[in-house]
Amino acid sequence: MRMRMTTFPRAARVLAVFALLLAFSAPLSAQDLAAWFANPANQAAYGAIAADAQSLAATVRAASLSDSLLAARLEEAARKRVPAPVLLATLKEDSARYLSVSEALRDRGLLPADAKKASAMVEQVAILLRGGIVESELSAALDAAVAKLGATANNAAVTRAVAALSVVANAKAQYGFSEENCRLLAIALTESDLSNKKLDSVLDSIATFVAQGGSVSDALNSVIAKISKGNSSKVNATEKSNAGNSGQKQNQGNSGEKENNGKSGENGNSGGKKNN
Amino acid sequence: MIGDSRTDDDEVVKKVLSGDREAYRFLVDKYGPRVISFCRSRMHSEDDAKDAAQDVFIRAYSSLASFRTGESFAAWLFAIAANHVRTRFRIFSSERRKTEAAGVEVATAPPADPVEDVERSFRADGLRRAVSTLPPDMRWPVEFYYFAELSVAETARVLGLGEEAVKTRLFRARKSLRRALEEKQPKSSSRGMDI
Amino acid sequence: MMKCEDTRSFVDAWEVGEMTTTCTPEEFRMHLASCPDCSRRFGALLPLMERDLDLAASASPSPLPAGFADDVMAAIGSRGRQGFVFSPLIAAAAAAIFVVGLGLGIFFTKLNSDIVTVSFLLDAPQAKSVYLAGDFNAWSGDGYALSRVRPDGKWEIKIPLKKGKVYVYNFVVDGTKWIVDPSVPAKVDDGFGGSGSLLRL
Q: Within its chain, how far is the Cα of C135 from the centroid?
């Protein structure tokens, strides 16, 4: 018996213990960070960053948000076997992101007073920001949602903005639209009469338009025009298609559709598939 | 000369990806100062800038598999850096925007250095403050081209713009910065250039 | 000896992106060193000018702080790259190109007004196991195994989820390979070097 134990690789034994502990550990939801780090498996892997994580959690709590935001990220990191220093670097980003999202929501009177509800709302928005949405698009969508639904209907307004932005995120990833055009699309979607569920259909419309030989640029124009309230100042977004466009130069002299906006290359350059 | 910088970077990345972790140090040493300089533009202190810069290298390491050899490593690295600083110091609230615009000083201990360095660091603070008041479409090009020392081509790549567009924005930025800095004469003589 | 007005035209030229020949950068710097007025006016611009002139001289950024590289190397060395692989190869093998557009890998059936049943599909004929891990199950694939019972051989799982929210998820193939859903264009940066897929209900 003992012989077998010593020949069993140490790493595998640690993992086996890890797995057992995970299998029997309580669900994460209400646990605070201290409890998470107290778990021996987590302590072994991430004990070194516990203190720093706790101070980040303190700043999150100071903004009237819940620890659970960071706890969720810790758990995700553990599952993905992320090294402790990488996790810490990411937690710093996450904390800052949660704080600035909560400010953006609070500024518009949208943030609930209850920390749990506020955190749930912040988390939703943060997902979009990690999904390629940038500040200008977020601000535009939130403002449009408030204009449409009022700040007192805060949940509905944020849900609306998030729904619109998820469509923008997909459109951006698929077609590589510029930031300005994404912003216009975000506004048009948020303001439109389409239900949240129906917003996805816009992507199908673009796809159909393009499949029938139209340029991506025209597809976007046509879609925005269709769903807008007829405000013509919105329809001057022009995407320079690959085949070349007769006429309009884009506002800022962009030479291409793809804008990285300083986004890291991690996601494969925003995965923009250009349709020729 | 050991040859084209770009092929050097490619070689090192290949080495790291095939298991030679220590080879990554070459890239840290090579780009470290520029990353710190870039981060300093948005961080409130040298320490924060250094901390952010280290995080950038850690993030870059974990994403190394997504770097496509043949492309500019500098552009790829600074895109990660930009993402990192932009997230950590995103300014959403009008409160903070106003504070930055007013050039409110963040309390930092004055460096215990000879006069020339004190003088230089005050000037550097002035420049940084002026840059922080630029609108985003000018600020990023300045940070990439001047602080990170990317080429115009690399800057264009990171921002997804044409080179002419980048040059135009840099031109407008220089104009703007000059005006901002020329108007701002230090008021108190304790700033010490009056002899 | 350079005069203040020459300094001004030097700066003018720099501003528009040209470098004048009326004086050299060295002369400019020397003038600034002896003229408090010009120094106050233009001193802060010096680093920018030097960058434009590609001068590696005294204005180069401070050398790397001691221990900077050591700290980074220690950080990345602490767990190594093993077990932390986001392999694009698996994604290629698994790629089923669901041709029509958004969320074709995902189908909905309504349960009640608040909850929908979402079906996740993955075409991965070489995989031995596939799990679904996302923020709705705390990233634990346990109990969320996909199975291959469909006639087209695709892996599938159906789970109930609350409407009106966005979710992030991955497929975990053969126990260790975390991949995005190839049918979803939008990727959510997970901050750890990989991505998840965006689902909105």
A: 19
DSSP category for residue B59 = H
Distance in angstroms (rounded) separating the CA atoms of residues B1 and B3: 5
Q: Say which residue the tokens 């090294």 belong to.
A: A83
pLDDT tens string B67-114: 888 888 998 999 888 888 877 665 433 444 445 455 444 434 444 445
CATH number of C88-200: 2.60.40.10
Q: Are C134 and C95 in contact (CB under 8 A)?
A: no
Question: Subunits with at least 3 CB pairs below 8 A relative to chain B?
Answer: A, C
Please list every residue in chain C whose beta carbon sits closer than 8 Å to the beta carbon of residue A83: 75-76, 78-80, 84
Residue C32: its pLDDT value, please?
A: 84
Dist. CA C32–CA C60, nearest whole Å: 18
Token code pair at residue A7? 């020949």
Contact B48/A at CB under 8 A = no
- Other CB atoms within a 10 A radius of the CB of residue C162 amount to 11
pLDDT (tens, 9 = 90+) of chain C, 201 residues, equals 678 888 888 888 889 888 766 677 778 888 888 888 888 888 888 888 888 877 544 445 568 888 999 999 888 875 444 433 333 333 333 333 221 223 334 555 555 667 888 999 999 988 999 999 999 998 988 888 999 888 888 899 998 889 899 999 999 999 889 999 999 989 999 999 999 999 998
Touching C: B residues 42-61, CB under 8 Å:
50, 53-54, 57-59, 61
Give the span between the Cα atoms of A145 and A125, in whole angstroms.
Answer: 13
**A65 to A27, A81, A119, B194: CA distances (angstroms):** 20, 26, 5, 50
Q: How many Cβ atoms sit within 10 Å of the Cβ of residue C95? A: 14
Q: CA-based Rg of chain C, rounded to a whole angstrom?
A: 30
What is this structure's pTM?
A: 0.63
Q: What ranges do the domains of chain C cover?
A: 4-52, 88-200
In the predicted model, what is the mean pLDDT of residues A176-187? 90
The DSSP output letter for C169 is E
Whether A25 shows a pLDDT value over 50: the answer reads no
Cβ proximity of C46 and C29 under 8 Å: yes
Nearest to B79 among A97, A258, A260 (CB): A260
Is residue A127 within 8 Å of residue A101, measured between CB atoms? no
Tokens of C23: 């004086």
3-state DSSP assignment of residue C200: strand
B33: which DSSP letter? H
| Residues A86 and A49 sit within 8 Å (Cβ to Cβ) | no
What's the CA gap between C122 and C120, in Å, rounded? 7
Longest dimension (CA), chain B: 59
Per-residue pLDDT tens over the stretch C56-81: 444 455 688 889 999 998 888 754 44
Which domains does chain B carry?
A: 1-90 (1.10.1740.10)
CB-side exposure of C49: number of CA atoms within 13 Å?
A: 23
Write the single-letter amino acid at A110. Answer: L
Domain ranges in chain A are: 24-115, 131-239
Cα–Cα distance measured from residue C25 to residue C46, given in angstroms and rounded to the nearest whole number: 9
Q: Nearest by CB to A265, which of B67, B92, B168? A: B67
* Phi, psi (deg, nearest 5) at residue C130: -140, 130
